[in-house]
Amino acid sequence: MRVAATDADLATVAELAGRIWRAHFPSILSARQIEYMLGWMYDAARLREEVARGVVYELLLDEDRPFGYCAYEELPEGELRLHKLYLEVADHGRGLGSFALRRVEDEGRRRGLARVVLGVNKSNEKALRAYRRNGYVIREAVKKDIGGGFFMDDFIMEKVL
To answer: With CB atoms counted within 10 Å of each terminal CB, which end of the chain scores lower, N or C?
Structure first.
C-alpha cells in the first residue's frame, strides 16, 4: 500500500532514505558523496519546499511498516517526473518496486500526461534492470554538478503512457 506523506511523515522519509542509501549505494558512490547527497536532498526544509512546489511524497507500507517511498511531480511538458523511488534493501526482489512504479504511471495517466521520466545513476545496474523490465528506455545521459565536488552522472529514462 502507498499513502500520501503528510508533513509529519517527511521525517520518516528522511530516516528511510538514510538507511536505504547507506545500504544500497556504497558500491556505486563514495561514503562522502552518500552523506553529502542525503544532507542535500533530505533536509527537512528542502523536503517541505519540494512539497510546497507540488512534489508529492508517498510512503510505501507493508501493513503499517514503512519500507520505502516515492516522490513525483507534474512537469509543464506534460510529463510526470519520478524524483525518487527507494525501497529497503531487504524488500528488493519482491515486486514491490514494480508495483509502486505502476501506481505512479497510473497517476500520470489519471492526470492525462504523456510519459513518466526519471533519472537513475548510470552505475545503478539493479535499478536500470528494473526500469528496463518495466518498459523504460534511456532518453539521454546527463552529468550534473551538485556542489561539494560531486556530480550526478545519470541516465534520464522515460516510458510513454
So the answer is: N
